[in-house]
Amino acid sequence: xxxxxxxxxxxxxxxxxxxxxxxxxxxxxxxxxxxxxxxxxxxxxxxxxxxxxxxxxxxxxxxxxxxxxxxxxxxxxxxxxxxxxxxxxxxxxxxxxxxxxxxxxxxxxxxxxxxxxxxxxxxxxxxxxxxxxxxxxxxxxxxxxxxxxxxxxxxxxxxxxxxxxxxxxxxxxxxx
Length: 176
Prior knowledge:
Low-confidence stretches: none
Structural class: mainly beta
Strand order of the largest sheet: 1-2-3-4-5-6-7-8-9-10-11-12
């Protein structure tokens, strides 16, 4: 039953993604630690975008582009529960604010750790936990994500976005 991983400055995960909105590659790199409202966070950087994950549980608090907040989650979006085990289930209601777009969305989701699966992606073959996030009201799948304790991050994701299906896979990683 894995605990929340320790991310170290300089660790990197390289992903490729593809879908109806286009294809590409991105590198997530642990840039630094930062305190937000008295709470320690890891800052993951890709280009000019930064993701702020609460250190205690890897919940997603905010995203910035060029230092400007583009997404703020209140409370922070719980991606995982620790220690992780098959059968875990939690519900979360959160407000996602997009200040630049002047948009606010309320998300009411159910998240389940459905299974342990071995997944092969370009970066290798990994034992994973399959995590499924659903819209609680409709039951629609928002995403399926395969988290690898070995990598300390997800290795595959299938997201149902407004623009259509997007799939991401780990193609390389470097842990510090």
